[in-house]
Amino acid sequence: MKVLVLAVVLLCVCSLEGAVVKRNSETPSLSDVFSQYFQTVSEYLSKQLPEKAKTEELKTQAKAYLEQAHEQLSPIAKQLHTEFMDLITQLVETGKKAVKQ
Length: 101
Prior knowledge:
Blueprint: H1 2-25, H2 30-100
């Protein structure tokens, strides 16, 4: 019986020691941390930065398009406003004439 208990205790100690060694081996070294950092930075510079540049380019193109549309539509909008106000004025004058008769 003592041998069985001793075997179980020895087995538990060996498995715990193996877990401690395994846990200690999982801590990254300084060179691993730096290589991970540089890999992350290089991925950012190669993938995400050009995408952001494309986004800025699209914003610039959209802004230019909106400015061009504003330049082209402003005179038309002013003309429509003037004509609409003239129409309203004529309708009011016609209504006043109808009331007087």
